[in-house]
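ok so i was messing around last nite and threw this chain in just to see what happens. nothing serious, just curious
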Amino acid sequence: MARAMLPVMGAAPQPSVPPRPVAPPAPGDRTLNFPVTGMHCAACVGRVQVAIEHAPGVRSAVVNLMTNTATVSFDPAAVSPEAIVEAVVSTGYGAELPQEHQSAAEEQDRQDAAREAEYRDYVRKGVASLFVGVAMMSVMALPMHRTMSWAWLPWLMLAITTAVMAWAGRHFYTRAWMAFRHHSADMNTLISVGTGAAYGYSLVATVAPQLFTRHGVAPDLYYEAVVVIIALILVGNALEARAKGATAGAVRRLIDLQPKSARVLRDGGERDVPVEQVAEGDEIVVRPGERIPVDGVVASGTSAVDESMLTGEPMPVAKGAGDRVVGGTINGRGSFHFRATTLGADSTLARIVKMMKDAQGTRAPIQRIADRISSVFVPVVLSIAIATFVTWYLFSGSEGLVRSIASAVTVLIIACPCAMGLAVPTAVMVATGRGAELGVLIKGGAALERAGALTTIVLDKTGTVTEGKPVVTDVRLAPDALVDEATMLALAGALERRSEHPLAGAIVARAGASAERATVSAFEAIAGQGAIGVVDGRSVSVGNAALMRDWAVDVSTLADAADALAADAKTVVFVAIDAKAAGLLAVADPIKATSREAVRRFRALGLDVVLLTGDQQRAADAIARAAGITRVIAGVLPDGKRDAIQRLQQEGKVVAMIGDGINDAPALAQADVGIAVGTGTDVAIEASDITLMRGDLRAAADAIAIARATMRTMRQNLFWAFAYNVVGIPLAAGVLYPAFGLLLNPIIASAAMAMSSVSVVTNSLRLRRYRPS
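result:
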């Protein structure tokens, strides 16, 4: 489906556990991501989203206030990208199509530059207005300003206030007018009506003060209040812009990992070229301590590479010929040459950045609460302000007009839909960025919300709980063996080098270099039994008990050891040399060193842990015991894995599935949260909601813990945003005045409004300090 990134959110009811989206894109649909400027609150987001969704051919739209982007899914046969952008522009907001062939770094540079320019503009206008406002307040505090000798002062203040409104506050009024033309209202409407009412009252008091004095009302001026309100809101906007910029720091840090140039072997020598000019197949030289410029495969040399930026794992990874290296990682003390493979947008780093940006452009279902309130917020506040004005005017005696205007303006200024619009997307943005730094890629707010509600976690066995490749775990010599362990391994390994059996590689790896030194002069593979041959002039047989029996080799002295190893789900391989039993090898797929600790952490999070595998029950039980798992579902095919997930869901459980293979994809898609191990297949990763960039189940525990911390932060933000308005608006209207004589000043209200948004963003930024337990 075609999707376009714009800043807006829609409204819909919130389920207790948000459903996982399963609708596939329609054939031929496209996705469009583009920037939207001028949005400042949830009402702005709603206007943009509605405008996009009303365009013909648009399937869905998600507008994000934090990233100022829109993601639109559309049918290109029914609507063009230009028409979608024009629909946004027609509502009074800025939008443009993304530039073609723009790298992630260039796009981020453009966004950072725009954000920095916006911040500086807010600071310049806010500080200047605040300076003017404080000066005006100081003058108004002087008693002589009402004397005839100061009669010119109101006119001077009128001129200054008009200039401030036209320069520093211009965007508030132009955007409010644009909203009015489109029969809607937003935060700018509240600011414009509030400051406009105070300005209009002061203007009349300046031009025709007798209209007030003839009714016994002092012609008070509110020019300084208008200027200070605009100044404080601009300062709040500046702080908010700076805090929002900090939430994008994770993306910036990832992009900055890629070097600007690469040392390429060309024309018989080394040449430094920009990474954009590196071609697939180029041979690149990496020296000690350098950052690897692009993805590739080592051609020669050895080293250890720090891949913590990719996996979150601090231990360097040994690299040699044939091993894959990733652009952005840091070489250790060795030096090597490698050939470039995936480049540009297909590189690992670029895909991580894209996945992060896509995730940050999504909306968590919990946001719908704020969206529903925001859709009626401004009209309700305007109604409350009118009611406040009428009430004060009717019941406050001779001061009725003055207090009614002041209280109505305070209501309009203190109301803040911005905090509601920022409450959820700020938390999503920071959490996905922090997750990426820990080697966990989370595909958006909906995945975060579902992960925060998990009750059960289902683990695939092979490659997820276990290493995913067989190794020799035990070596036993026969009591009457004629050779030592090293000789037996060397002869068996040499023979198995000729074999294509899946377990042969494990035996060869255990034998090491000694298997390469031996000479095989005869070899025969016997299907279902093993292999026989002649190695260094000696007859060697490697296989199961049936092979030994057929070749009249007595292995009775090894029977007890073989039975004990088989009970632990290990495959027993007998070795005979010169027709006499030499010993046995036990081969198994061992559990990862971190799996047991991960299972303990899952349980500490209150999760039920289930092992799900297509392997035999005995093998599955052995792995479960080793990992500390008590519930096992074994012997299931890929469709059976999906059915097992469904049965758990029917029991009322919220289920996560962790897997790494193609056969896990149906179960990953069925689960409430699919978690793919990044060392696995692309199919599994595509079907998942969360990707672990290292083959360590503890990263899944990190992901769930981050999700829960994020949901707590979202709820805190929403509570503060709602509580602030629920308490602040009645307080501004004067409900406490009859009992306590408490009445807010419009200037105090503007400061409170400015800080409410900053507090929400700052609370979300705490997630940047999350540390795995």
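not much to say yet. Confidence is low (pLDDT under 50) at residues 1-16, 19-24.
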